[in-house]
Amino acid sequence: MDLSFRMFRNIPSLVADNWKRGNLNYPMIIYTTLVHTIALAGIMRVPKCSAETLFFAFILWPIR
What we know:
Layout: H1 5-21, H2 26-45, H3 51-60
């Protein structure tokens, strides 16, 4: 994965090709959607966290 513009430009054609072939991985689609939705909800709640919680998260981040 190179994160270039060309890679992002090819995503719609890759999805369309998999749709035509009928080989979409529905459990992974559901899982990815749920994980990203929960992550977005978590990001929206970061400003409501106390300073102690954010400091604790920052301290734990390197040793995860």
